[in-house]
Specification:
With 370 residues, the protein is α+β, with helices and mostly antiparallel strands. The chain has 12 helices and 18 strands. Strands 4-5-9-7-8 form a 5-stranded antiparallel beta sheet. InterPro entries: FAD-bd_PCMH, FAD-bd_PCMH-like_sf, FAD-bd_PCMH_sub2, FAD-linked_Oxase-like_C, Oxid_FAD_bind_N.
Length: 370
């Protein structure tokens, strides 16, 4: 059974009834972020709670309901020369879905693309929110503009909780200027160790690298700006770091297309093999990537080496034995928990939070348990 509330009041009433009955729910919007078919419960789809509440380009703030499509928001922002700086990815190619990515799913998953290493993650741009918790209570936190954001930052807790603490009904986000000029330096014939060394050198400069990724013997560094002369100056200074390397320059549309594919994991799309997302220290990335590849699959690096994608064989104990912070994004026939197990003190805190926000354990039960 699928339930589709049309507004916050209907959602609150529905969740309150499910809380009383201790009946679990699987929270979805566009269905493009997390594979949830293995979870117990009826589907609660919030795509009907949609629409932009307000957008103030001058204040660089946006307020939208969770079912609002990401494409609608990005088009509206681009018309004003603005964007969501954290570059949320489109996971449909990786997960084989045909739904519509929504802003609620972005915030619930803390979905952040390559520009995270420069601009921060989704949660760093979240100003405020409204949600319905597992008791059916409507809660709100934060403000609608930067100057009003005070007190306990509940948004940092909710963003990335994947609906296990509450169902979003409204999010307020900071927007930033859209950089019209972009350029990518592609360094060919490098190893993962070489790539991380190049990333470390480039990211230590003042030349504002906004993307640093590696796959299949190629490393990419992206720079963006308001004017071409400024970009050319930064390019020339960065090229000085790569003496003796084979470097290709990608401008405009070619650079945009490349980073869209890297953002969306296009190189791991079109297959049903298990896909893991691994958070690491960048200096550990070459060693961990090599160990994962020894299992028989392929890897790529993003966030300057702070993020590894691994696609290929390997049971969960084998993958997490190499990379303890590995999250299973595409199951590919694997069972078990998608999220890694937490240390005992962290697990106790997590369980305490869930008892507070969802005492009957009805919201995506089991999704984030390792």
């Amino acid at each position: 059974m699928t339930m589709t509330p049309r507004n916050e009041a209907e959602l609150a009433e529905l969740i309150a009834a499910r809380h009383a009955a201790r009946a679990p729910l699987r929270i979805t919007g566009g269905g493009t972020r997390v594979q949830m078919a293995h979870l117990a419960g009826d589907d609660l789809n919030v795509s009907g709670i949609s629409g932009v509440v307000t957008y103030a380009p001058g204040e660089m703030t946006l307020i939208a309901r969770p079912g609002t499509s990401l494409a609608e928001i990005e088009t509206m922002l681009a018309a004003e020369g603005q964007a969501l700086a954290f570059e949320p990815p489109d996971m449909r190619g990786l997960l084989g879905g045909n739904g519509v990515p929504t802003i609620g799913g972005v915030v619930a998953a803390n979905a952040s693309g390559p520009r995270r290493l420069f601009a921060g993650a989704c949660r760093d741009h979240l100003l405020g929110l409204r949600l319905v918790d597992g008791r059916g209570r409507v809660l709100k936190n934060g403000g609608r503009v930067m100057k009003n954001v005070t007190g306990l930052d509940l948004g940092k807790l909710i963003c990335g909780a994947h609906g296990t603490l509450g169902v979003l009904t409204e999010v307020a986000l900071k927007t930033l200027p859209l950089m019209p000029e972009r350029m990518t330096l592609a360094i060919h014939g490098v190893t993962a160790t070489d790539a991380v060394g190049l990333f470390s050198a480039a990211l230590a400069t003042p030349y504002e690298v906004t993307g640093a990724a590696f796959h299949d013997g190629r490393a990419w560094l992206r720079i963006e700006g308001l004017a071409q002369p400024q970009l050319s100056y930064r390019r020339d200074r960065l090229l000085g770091l790569f003496a003796g390397r084979e470097v290709e320059e990608l401008d405009g549309p070619a650079s945009t297309a490349l980073w869209r594919d890297l953002r969306d994991g296009a190189h791991f799309s079109g297959t049903e093999a298990p896909l893991w997302r691994v958070l690491v220290k960048p200096t550990d990335a070459p060693r961990i990537a090599a160990a994962l590849e020894a299992l028989g699959g392929a890897t790529s690096l993003d966030w300057g080496g702070g993020l590894i994608w691994y696609s290929g064989p390997g049971a969960a104990p084998a993958v997490r034995g190499i990379a303890p912070h590995a999250t299973l994004i595409r199951r590919g026939g694997l069972g078990g928990a998608a999220f890694p197990p937490q240390a005992a003190p962290v697990a106790a805190l997590s369980q305490g939070l869930r008892r507070t926000f969802d005492p009957a354990a009805i919201l995506n039960p089991g999704l984030m348990e390792g």
